[in-house]
Amino acid sequence: MRLLAIESSCDETAVAIIEGAPGAPATLLASKVASQIELHRVYGGVVPELASRNHSLHLRPLVEQALADAHLSLREIDAFAATSGPGLASSLLIGATAAKALAATTRKPFLAINHLEGHLLSPFIDRSGVPPHVALIVSGGHTLLLDVEKPGSYRKLGTTRDDAAGEAFDKVGKMLGLPYPGGPEVEKAAVQGRPDAFDFPRSMMKDRSLDFSFSGLKTAVLYTLTDRNPVDGTPKEDDLPDLCASFQQAVIDVLIHKTLRAATTSNRRTIALSGGVSLNRSLRTAFARATDDAGIELTTADPALCTDNAAMIAFAGLLRHQNGECWPLDSDIDPAMPLVP
Ligand code: ATP
Ligand code: MG
Ligand code: FE
């Protein structure tokens, strides 16, 4: 069975085609992403009107390129899926409407997929199954710890009380005068820095809950900046690598501490990492070491599937389809769609 999926929840337009049968690893036949990062960079963040306009410009050529990559015609697709939330309403509408139109004209089923379920399942695309595990989704808008019994069966263990991990990276990057998005830039600068140069707070480490908080850390970076350069609070050039490395380490320490504790309390032997922040190499290395020490298996998403893409939406759609699910063509998008009710 072959499924074509569209992702357009934010500033990436993406189309993917996946092929799969129950119990066997799925095969990705095509995965195209048109990133709008350059377009939004001059504004220092995503401009919703620009994003939706560009989704409508890029979508049709991307669908055609994906079909060409997969050597398939539209008639050979058995189902269509689209991200239906959470995300920007005007962006979600473009992809969801296109997928419904394709499903209607070909008389094939339509599947409305939660963007976060896409991230969550992305580490397992090339596996033959999804084992029970603890999942950490660290993206631009979310920091979510979940207990996963099986696909579709999720229990929320913890989430952020303020900023998401990726959002903290982006805001600190902005403070430090780095281009948008801050995450990859902070990682680059951190390579030359000392992670113990500044003693930044690890919020809620001793808290019994599995929730996170990153706004105190962000403020600590700001205070350090104004302290060291009272004139205008811009970082002294020599400070930049140390600030980035110390901030990054504080985020990593908290994420590892809570995720390992979640695995213990949920009695799971596998941890899966997904979302844009899981691209961070220091984070991957630190997680690999910590899980190894704890005798826990670590599964990460392929680097190409950490930030937004349609392959993860196609995979989530495939599993939902195999589960006999299908959505009516008048089903709506939901910009605040929860993963766990
Ligand atoms: P959500 O999925 O919550 O709606 P999103 O789709 O914007 O948010 P992703 O595309 O998964 O999020 O990830 C983007 C985020 O990942 C940005 O905040 C970006 O800064 C961060 N990021 C990307 N690469 C890195 C990196 N190497 N280190 C740290 N953060 C990174
Ligand atoms: Mg993005
Ligand atoms: Fe995302």
TrEMBL record:
<protein>
    <recommendedName>
        <fullName>tRNA N6-adenosine threonylcarbamoyltransferase</fullName>
        <ecNumber>2.3.1.234</ecNumber>
    </recommendedName>
</protein>
<keyword id="KW-0479">Metal-binding</keyword>
<feature type="binding site">
    <location>
        <begin position="137"/>
        <end position="141"/>
    </location>
    <ligand>
        <name>substrate</name>
    </ligand>
</feature>
<feature type="binding site">
    <location>
        <position position="280"/>
    </location>
    <ligand>
        <name>substrate</name>
    </ligand>
</feature>
<comment type="function">
    <text>Required for the formation of a threonylcarbamoyl group on adenosine at position 37 (t(6)A37) in tRNAs that read codons beginning with adenine. Is involved in the transfer of the threonylcarbamoyl moiety of threonylcarbamoyl-AMP (TC-AMP) to the N6 group of A37, together with TsaE and TsaB. TsaD likely plays a direct catalytic role in this reaction.</text>
</comment>
<dbReference type="Pfam" id="PF00814">
    <property type="entry name" value="TsaD"/>
</dbReference>
<keyword id="KW-0808">Transferase</keyword>
<keyword id="KW-0408">Iron</keyword>
<comment type="similarity">
    <text>Belongs to the KAE1 / TsaD family.</text>
</comment>
<dbReference type="GO" id="GO:0005506">
    <property type="term" value="F:iron ion binding"/>
</dbReference>
<dbReference type="InterPro" id="IPR043129">
    <property type="entry name" value="ATPase_NBD"/>
</dbReference>
<feature type="binding site">
    <location>
        <position position="170"/>
    </location>
    <ligand>
        <name>substrate</name>
    </ligand>
</feature>
<feature type="domain" description="Gcp-like">
    <location>
        <begin position="28"/>
        <end position="315"/>
    </location>
</feature>
<dbReference type="GO" id="GO:0061711">
    <property type="term" value="F:tRNA N(6)-L-threonylcarbamoyladenine synthase activity"/>
</dbReference>
<dbReference type="GO" id="GO:0002949">
    <property type="term" value="P:tRNA threonylcarbamoyladenosine modification"/>
</dbReference>
<feature type="binding site">
    <location>
        <position position="119"/>
    </location>
    <ligand>
        <name>Fe cation</name>
    </ligand>
</feature>
<keyword id="KW-0963">Cytoplasm</keyword>
<dbReference type="InterPro" id="IPR022450">
    <property type="entry name" value="TsaD"/>
</dbReference>
<feature type="binding site">
    <location>
        <position position="183"/>
    </location>
    <ligand>
        <name>substrate</name>
    </ligand>
</feature>
<keyword id="KW-0819">tRNA processing</keyword>
<dbReference type="InterPro" id="IPR017861">
    <property type="entry name" value="KAE1/TsaD"/>
</dbReference>
<keyword id="KW-0012">Acyltransferase</keyword>
<feature type="binding site">
    <location>
        <position position="115"/>
    </location>
    <ligand>
        <name>Fe cation</name>
    </ligand>
</feature>
<feature type="binding site">
    <location>
        <position position="187"/>
    </location>
    <ligand>
        <name>substrate</name>
    </ligand>
</feature>
<dbReference type="GO" id="GO:0005737">
    <property type="term" value="C:cytoplasm"/>
</dbReference>
<dbReference type="InterPro" id="IPR000905">
    <property type="entry name" value="Gcp-like_dom"/>
</dbReference>
<feature type="binding site">
    <location>
        <position position="308"/>
    </location>
    <ligand>
        <name>Fe cation</name>
    </ligand>
</feature>
